[in-house]
Amino acid sequence: MNAIPAARGRPCAVGQRLAGRAFRSAEQQPQRTAAKSLVAKAVEIITGQAQGDAAAAVNKASSALDRAAKHGAIHKNAAARRKSRLAQQLKAKQAAAA
Description:
By secondary structure, the chain is an all-alpha fold.
């Protein structure tokens, strides 16, 4: 008759889950932001809105996307898709310049 009611254990579990979410969000948000910023910078360079080495910018963006995917900040397939689209844009720019 000394069983602990199920509702009694839930607030602790809910609190732990929320704390875990907050920690993951705090850890992953800067990686997501960095990856998105580098991708945007690479796109600006490719489209000619900013000056710089397009290949180096795409390389940095790809590396940032890989790091973000490694830590779970973004899904690995999303990172691969974004890297592929960047590479396509770079290849199209290089083909147009040649």
